[in-house]
Fold this sequence. Notes:
Layout: E1 6-11, H1 16-25, E2 31-37, E3 46-48, H2 56-59, E4 67-70, H3 81-101, E5 106-112, H4 137-156, E6 159-165, H5 182-187, H6 192-204, E7 210-215, H7 227-233, H8 247-262
Parallel strand pairs: 1-2, 1-4, 2-3, 4-5, 5-6, 6-7
Amino acid sequence: MAARTKRVIVTGSTGNLGLKAVAALSKLNGWEVIRIGRNSQRRPDICEADLERYEESWAAHFDNADAVLHLAADPKPVANWDSILRLNIQLALNVFRAAERAQVRRFVFASSNWVLGGYRFQHVRLTSNLAPWPVNPYGASKLLMERYGGVVAERTGMSVLSLRIGYCQPGDNHPGPHMAFGRWGQEMWLGNRDWEQAVVKAVTCHFSGSAILNIVSHNQGMRWDLEEARKTIGYIPEEHHQPRLTLISLLKDQAARLRERLFPSGAAQPLFGARW
Length: 276
């Protein structure tokens, strides 16, 4: 008897990370990729759904799914709370609800390095056990959904992997001084091949429980700990980048460092009295 074809649901499949993830997962033998979400181009291979509103009509697509790769979100670090609440929190809660309803066994959540954004100029190893330090609503939303995923895993037995994804640019994704956030941005560059590797292993590996994993390439000066990702899903980055700064980018980097020293992001104790 032939083995049953497994199904993976992918949200956010038309975005930068989504297109690359779908391309990688589509190469897997014995797996079917189901794309769901906005479909402004009316493509026949995408199940059109407004994931901001939970509806049984689109949740039914999760029936008999083996895994969910949730990438749909507002990807902008500067997004305001209105957008974050709709696209990064409520939408994610709806997708979790659909997965739980269908008793999906694996949920892979696209978290972000922004959960630890406050450590940009700190000299510490960035592990999943380090106290979170988001500096914007985007990072805060990712932290919230990481924690919610852990609750779902404990309550239902669904395995939940939250991937703190590095800096993966659209298209060919060549690293260099053109990237934002100076040295910090280049140190957490995530190459296309490494992202595709992480997606495939996160969806298909044997794992139970919940885990938060750093996913970046093996860049010089990189402080993101990758040991847990290696042990949990077998992720071993193959790509490498040596950060380099132009004079302009170096000056911007130093200015950001000075600004952070004078006006710390997310400081527990404000410099000038109570905040409100």
